[in-house]
Amino acid sequence: MSKPKVAIVYYSMYGHIRSLAVEEKKGLEAAGCEVTLLQVPETLPEEVLKKMGAPDKPDDPIAEAKDLPSYDGILFGLPTRFGMAAAQMKAFMDSTGSLWQTGALVGKPAGIFFSTATQAGGQETTALTFVTQLTHHGMMFVPIGYSSPLLFDLSEPHGGSPYGAGTLAGPDGSRQPLDLERKVAAHQGEYFGKIVAKLTM
Length: 201
Description:
7-stranded mixed sheet, FMN_Rdtase-like_dom, Rossmann fold, globular, alpha/beta
């Protein structure tokens, strides 16, 4: 029996979301899934990115809307801009109109993970406002709830919520994901992967 195929579609300017994506991939693979990391196209000019101090992009393939129907499930990695998904991700979703018209993503499970600058910077609103994208495509949103006890850990400030894994980047982007945040991301991947596997049996 073939492995369930899952795409992790993400945008990451400073690397925080990609760091979580790598952990999500580990969890998905532990659940027996075949995983592909896909970065959405950049919309900012190279000159602007350099002025913003953004590092070079990783070698992950560029996401194309036409490829999404070939996956059994999709996880979306979202950096937050003012409480919502970054414009780059929104631009990518705007390119999926033909998939919407044909119902190509209807019934596919989807999950969300995210990065914000601060603890109250949109850890939940980013997910909530992105659910509209999934809803219009007829996708099934799979939150993690409190399936990981790490979400109850209040020993230090951390990202993540019942909606999905998350990290806090800090106002200047210098804070990197905590071990706890990475573990929640890996948990989400495995949790999501098991659900995808059940749906594709």
